[in-house]
Each structure stands twice: as structure tokens, then as C-alpha cells.
Amino acid sequence: MAGSPDSEHAAFLSALRALLPDDGLLTQSEDLHPYECDGLSVLRELPLAVVLPRHRAEVQAVLKICQQYGVAVVPRGAGTGLSGGARPSAGAIVLSLARLKQIRALDTSNRTARVQPGVRNLAISEAARPMGLYYAPDPSSQIACTIGGNVAENSGGVHCLKYGLTVHNVLALEVLDVSGERLEIGSQAPDSPGYDLLALMMGSEGLLGIVTECTLRLLPVPENTLVLLAAFASVVAAADAVSAIIAAGIIPAGLEMMDQLAIEAAEDFVHAGYPRDAAAILLCELDGTEAELQERLRAVEKLLQRQGATSIRIAADAETRLLLWKGRKAAFPAVGRLAPDYYCMDGTIPRRRLAEVLEQIAIWSAEYGLRVANVFHAGDGNLHPLILYDANVEEQLYAAEALGQRILELCVAVGGSITGEHGVGVEKLDSMCAQFTPTELAQLHRIKAAFDPEGRLNPGKAVPSLHRCAELGAMHVHHGQLPFPELERF
Amino acid sequence: MAGSPDSEHAAFLSALRALLPDDGLLTQSEDLHPYECDGLSVLRELPLAVVLPRHRAEVQAVLKICQQYGVAVVPRGAGTGLSGGARPSAGAIVLSLARLKQIRALDTSNRTARVQPGVRNLAISEAARPMGLYYAPDPSSQIACTIGGNVAENSGGVHCLKYGLTVHNVLALEVLDVSGERLEIGSQAPDSPGYDLLALMMGSEGLLGIVTECTLRLLPVPENTLVLLAAFASVVAAADAVSAIIAAGIIPAGLEMMDQLAIEAAEDFVHAGYPRDAAAILLCELDGTEAELQERLRAVEKLLQRQGATSIRIAADAETRLLLWKGRKAAFPAVGRLAPDYYCMDGTIPRRRLAEVLEQIAIWSAEYGLRVANVFHAGDGNLHPLILYDANVEEQLYAAEALGQRILELCVAVGGSITGEHGVGVEKLDSMCAQFTPTELAQLHRIKAAFDPEGRLNPGKAVPSLHRCAELGAMHVHHGQLPFPELERF
Questions:
Q1: Closest residue to B189, CB basis, from A247, A291, A381
Q2: Of the candidates B109, B291, B381, which has its C-beta nearest A243's C-beta?
Q3: Helices assigned H by DSSP within B316-427
Q4: Which CA distances in Å does A451 have to A199, B172, B290?
Q5: What is the pLDDT confidence band of residue B207, given thresholds at 50, 70 and 90?
Q6: Where do the FAD-binding PCMH-type domain residues begin and end (chains A, B) (predicted)?
Q7: CB contact under 8 A, A450 and B437
Q8: SS3 A13
């Protein structure tokens, strides 16, 4: 803020106070504490204030006041993100979209839902179920996380192998730019003229605009569903089975892998009936009409046997199916009970590199003296190694970070990326320097500048400054000059 | 170009001449004529020169020379585009990518193809067929059109209902920016960190960068395929049948509609065995394993009967199937024989609005005294009304343009868009003023500026200048000032 800092600050807050109801503006330290971090709880910062607008007009007015006073804005959904994307920045306000939680329309003939950003992911499927429809992307946090945050992170879930990420299930967005101007992006038509701003908004982590309404694609609930549980004597055999299923042209609704450490932890925790002696298990969900299902079941069973599955269980009834999934969904907290702390990684690799990457992680695990459990979306090549450590032992903390960084660099080296679905946020800024060249990072900053020339939307997130990468040694800085001086401010 | 125009011009051409082999630089008027337009042949302009580089390094060098001399660049694939996207601009060079036509790799385990932009669409599927794979998007021009052009237009085709547009089938791109710097965009992983530049490049009509390599997703050739031909006594009944099929959760591989005028024209031309007395026909392709196919066939047959189909034919053998598709694929030239000229429209609408939009087109057809044939991707809501007229009768020419504009405005009004797959190019610049608000257009221009600040890549295409829209009366111009003065140059 310009001018005398104190008077500017007071003027800014009183402008917000004049706009919002009493409970729509939080400025007291005790009220701000719940907002000091998101799911990445190791990084905390108190915001200047938290605003909780109730509708688009209030969001617009907040953005205009922030523009007038030059204040940065950190948008926030449910705060379940794992990479610190909603962590406040010093001097910024947190713009919570939690009160924009109306389902505006459910259109059965067109199979769409129009919802505000603060609607919880699961609430959409619950509302659509009486019409036989549901919203497909299902992140593990779907009970709590909201659709605005899903758009910001381009969230996936167990079923995104078949049904796609958030980007594949959102048809249109209403977005406010940093100055509060309204943009309608996308349509119900399959393609739109102009540049694809819709895809650009997906996974942009709140850096490009504020979503105030989403039009979502709904799908018919599948007629039948079953889950296969296959056990393997080695992680490599399980990984090869994943490749074999996909190579056969079968796209399961979900295809998840867990290794022995994860199996035992989950079994102790929820008693799902997993085979404790297996080196790895696959959970493979199939859905469709009865005839499709039986045909695919036969094909998958044959493939699993050919790939050396030591046992195969089929859960056709809802109860057993849910129990098998319960073990998978509880795997993170279950593994969490094995050590004081765990570091959840999120990288993607081309599917055919699964076996070798898992082998390399096992080698490093021994080398660093840290146990690593693997529970992940195998069909997508989206890994979630969980590194177990004790944060009170300093060497273990550093070793966990170093091991994590090596795993992400390996993901990039085999042609994958440093994040599958958890985003970059503040957690992975340094890894972005490994993922992208200076030319590519500069292009990302120019996109940011095209939406937010002053860099006031969620500053310091998602795309590292060129200086930061230069300091990490990833970039040549000629006589102290970065190659793209016009991008100094990012 | 700055400096003495003649000497700058000569210096520019001799820089290109030093770089390229003799047949890689065309400057003589007779050599330039084949490049004066693309598939939109009514708009012609001779370029300054045509360059035909052979590999990425030559493309880079051409771009650097153009940057040095401030010359604009019009990229060109096979020149089959229908909206004038590859039409030369005065003083610009045409950068033909026709000689970058190598298939660099076919990876069966990962099911991907790595190809240069000048590879023909159909050539990819031909090369992949021995491995049981193919590339899904199949625009009607697939014998001739190249993958670089498909990326530029985000091309679809008969099968994009089930298998998606180009954007859904491209995994990664190598792109040169306007200064020749290389960007690697996308990966083989399902999601990438950073903003989604991959989707942004799709359909960007050569305004953001030059594609020098594409990594494509290949699909397994379906085990079985069959085509249903259903006849209806009214266009509305056929449109309702389309909605009923999709509402039942069935996604056919293709779902096309033809009205009576199109049926008769196609029948006279290729004798596909279409029912001449039908008001409309649907062609519905189903694919999958034998069990899936039989199950879906029964479901679709039942739905078609319930929706009042007057006859249903099933083509299971390849010969009949191809004959039925031949009529559809030849429909444009067949309709072309009915009148001296035809104007091929390309708009999209939400599927459930099909019946009412077709009815309105019929009313306007009578009102304007111009016959309109409809042949289109019904499942996608992608209309292709063909307006028949005689360009030698001036009133007919104007009437055809006016009718076309009204149809596009109707598409926008019902929630659709002014182009499905043919792009904006130069043809639809004015319609873009109806599709987007000034705020939205300004955002598109800022995206352009983030890639090409001087506006030298394919200038004057795809996104109209704000001045142009203002002159059309779509925008308020305050005291002669546009609302976004920093975007004056676009």
C-alpha cells in the first residue's frame, strides 16, 4: 500500500467493513489463526484479514477495493490442498469462497450442474444421485474439498483414469479477473473459438482469476460395478500387470497399487482382508452394463493370471467392494501410524516406467535409511510415495526432503512431472526449476502477467521466480542480469 | 521493415536465400500463386515470399531472420482450412511446414506417435495400423490435411463424439515461439504443473507459436464396428432421437444427421442406398467388443424405434458400412452440385437445442428464399448448414451472408458458439464480436501479447481487433477511446 502505511491500512479495512457484514471480515488474530495454512501445515503465515463474501457482487467489490489499495489476494476453498496453495502471504488478504455454496441448477436433459465454487465435491454427486447422475472426479478429500479448489488444482481421484481430471469434466466457468471484471469462459458446446482459456484456468492455483461459478458435466451412474483384488509376489510383476491391462485396450474405472508396507498398515487399520504376504496388490474397478462387465472381467482375470498374480478376489457386492476401497482410502492415515511423520510425494511418470521407478525408490529407501510406502494411481502413472521419518531427528528431516527431491527429479528424468494432482503451491517451487527451462518459465510468467500484471493474485505460488531458479543454480545469470528482465516482478 | 524499404526487403530475402536451398524459398509470382489462399478461396492475397524449411533448425533460423527484419509470419500446413487461417497477409511470408513430414517414433508399449507437423493425418493411422493402433481424430480432409494444421484448428471429425477433438489426443508439443526459442509443452503424464499451455496451443490458429513436433495418443483399432441407418419423418424426431441416445448414457463412435436435401443430393451422387423419402436420417456407428456391441445395438435400436424411426438398417459388414459413410463424406460436394455456390456454416449448440435450431433455420430458409441443406455431427451439436446460392446474383450473395450470420448468432444465443471445428481465421472475425464481450476479447489479446508482443505471427486472424468490433457497433467507444488502449496494436 502507498501513503502512510497505518492510515492506508485503516482505510483499506474500513472500506471492506463498509461492504461486508460483521462476520464477513475477520481481522482479529484469534479469528485469523484457522487460515494460517492449508493441508500443508508446516508452512504458516497470518493474513492481513480474511474476507467471506456471500455472492459474486461482493467478491467483485472486494477485488476492486484490493485493486485500489494494491493489496494481494489469496483465494481459498476448503483449505484441504496439500501443497500450500492457499497459504496466506504476508500483507495479503485471504478471500474465502466458502459462502458461495449454492447449487444453482441441475439440468438432467443436458446432464450438467451449475454450482458456486464453495460447493463441496461430494455434495454435487449427492444432489445429482436422485436423477441417476454423478460428478466423476473424486479426490480423496471429496467430503470436504470444494469445486473451486478442484478447479484451482485440476484435481483427479481414483476414477480419473477412466473419467478424466477436473479439466475433462468442467464445461464453463464464470471468472472474475484481478480487477473484478467478469469473464465467461467455455460453453456447453464441444469446442469454443478463441484461445482455450478454460483449460488455462484449470490447475492455475488461483493465480489467474477468481472462479465464481462452474458448469460441470454429470455422468450417469454406472449400471454395475465390481472390484478385483490381485496379489503379486513382486512390485515389478504388479507394475507389469498394470501396463498389460492398459495395453490390452481396457480402461478400468480405477486401477490402484499398494506395496507391502502400505498393505500391512491398511490391514492393521481397517481389516479390509488384504493379503499380508503379498509384495504388492492391485485394486481394479470395472464398470458398465452387465455384458460389458462380464466380458472385461474375463479379459482382466486372464491378463492378471498371465502376469503372475498369486491370488485374485472379485468383489461384486457393494459391501465387499466398499471394504476393499476403504483400505485404499485409509492408506495414508494408516501408513501415518507407522512413524511420527510422513512426507507424501506426488509425481507422475509414463506408465511403462513404473517398475523401474519403483525399484529405484526401493534402492534409495535403503540408502537413505528411510522406509517408503507406495499407495498410488497406477493406471495414471501417478505415484504417491510416502516417506516415513521422525521430524525430531534433524538428519531424518533433511534425508526425507533430499529423498523426496530425488524422487521428483527421477519423475522428470523419465518423462513425467513433479506433480500429479496436488499442485505446486509453495511446496514444489524449487522442483519447477528442474521441470522447466528458463524460456518455458518466462512464458508461464508472461501468461500470468496477461491476467494479473501487478502480480496480486496468490503471489509467490505455483511458478518460481527466475531469480529463485537462478539461485538454485538451474539457470545462468549473466552479469547478475536474468535473461528476461521484463519479468523481474514475478 | 524499417530503413529504406527496398534495401531492407532485398537484405531480408538474401538472408533467407543464404539459409535455404534453392527450392526452399519462393519469391516469383507464379510460384506464390498456389499459396494465395487456403480452402476459403474467396479471400486471396500474395505473400512476400514462401519458405519451405526442412527441419527445426531451419524453422528457427527463418523465425530469427523474420524477427530481425520485423516481418510477419503466416504458418501453413496443407492449406485445407476452411476459414482462411492460412491466407497470406500483405508483406508477410508464408512459412510452409510441408517438408517436416517425418514420423519420428511409434511407441506401441506407451501407445504414442511422435510426428513432425507436416505429416498427413491419415498417414499416422496407416503407419500405426500394423500394430493394431490408429490416431482417432478424423476430419473429412484427413487424406490431405496435416497434423500441424489439426493442432492449429483443434480439428474434430466424425468420431470425435467418442474419441475427442485434437486437444484430447495430443500429449505434448515442441513449439518455437516467435523469436525461434524452443518450448516443450505437455508430457506423457496425465497432468502437468504450470499453466496448461498445451490446451492453449490447440486451436490457436498459428497465432501463438510454430509447432515443430507433436506427441500423439494412439488408440487400439476397435474389435468390431457396425453402422445403423435410421430414417425419420421429421427433422425434429431425428434430433430428439439424438438426445435420447446420449441421455441413455450411450456414446456412439459417431452420430451424424442429414436432412432431406442432403440425402437426395448424396444419393444422386454416390448411391449409398439412403431412403429418399425420409425427412432426415441418422447414421450411428457403434464399436467395441462383440458383447458390448450387441448390447448397445439392442439398446440403440429400441431407442430409435421409440423415437419414431420409420426404418432402421444395420450394416455390419465392412463394405455396406463404408458405402453408408461414403454418402455422408461426399455430402458437401454432392450438395454443391445443386446450386452454383454454397456457403458451409460451422456452429455448435447444446445438443438439447438441436430440434428448435433446425426448425428456425428452416423458417429463415423460406424467408430468405435460399435452400439450406443440413449435414452434421449431431451427437456433438456441431451444425454444418450448407446455404445454396448463386454468387452471380448479387442479392443472393448478400442474402446468403446475412442468413449465415443470423444462424451463427442463433448458435451463440442458445448457448453454443460460432465455430465447431473450422476455426475463426479471417472468415468469422466479425462473429467473434458477437461471441465475446470487450473484456473477454481484451483478455484474448493479452494472451496473444504474452507469446507474440509485436503481433507478427499470423496477424489479423482468429481474434478481431477491438476497433473492428467497435465499428460493428458491438462496443462502446468513449470519445474515440477504446476501453483497453494498451491493446491498440492488435
A1: A381
A2: B109
A3: 318-329, 331-336, 354-368, 394-413
A4: 14, 24, 51
A5: very high
A6: 43-221
A7: no
A8: helix
Q: How many CB atoms lie within 10 A of CB A396?
A: 20
- Using one digit for the tens of pLDDT, what is the confidence trace for B426-479? 999 999 998 899 999 999 999 999 999 999 999 999 999 998 998 887 555 555
Q: Across the interface, which of A191, A352, A446 has its CB nearest the CB of B109?
A: A352
A453 secondary structure, DSSP code: T
**Interatomic CA distance for residues A292 and A296, integer angstroms:** 6
Phi/psi at B140 (5° precision): -55, -30
**Contact flag A428-B183 (C-beta cutoff 8 Å):** no
Q: From the CB of residue A374, how many other CB atoms can be counted at a distance below 10 Å?
A: 25
Judge if B255 and B206 occupy the same domain: no
**Helices B290-306 and B235-247, axial angle in degrees (round to 10):** 140
Residue that finishes a domain, picked among A49, A70, A96: A96
Asked if B179 is an interface residue toward chain A (Cβ–Cβ < 8 A), one would say no
Structural domain of A167: 103-220
Residue carrying C-alpha cell 449435414: B375
For residues A58 and A123, membership in a common domain is answered with no
Is B303 part of any domain?
A: yes
Q: Are residues B130 and B86 in the same domain?
A: no
Which residues of chain B make contact with A185, given a CB cutoff of 8 A?
Answer: 440
Farthest CA pair distance, chain A:
74
A254-259 and B133-134 strand pairing: unpaired
Number of Cβ within a 10 Å radius of residue B37:
18
| Number of structural domains found in chain A | 4
pLDDT tens track for B330-384:
898 899 999 999 998 899 998 889 999 999 999 999 999 999 999 999 998 999 9
Chain A residue with the nearest C-alpha to that of B292: A292
Cβ contact, residue pair B247, A196, below 8 Å: no
How far does the CA of residue B110 sit from the closest CA of chain A (Å)?
Answer: 6
DSSP B25: E
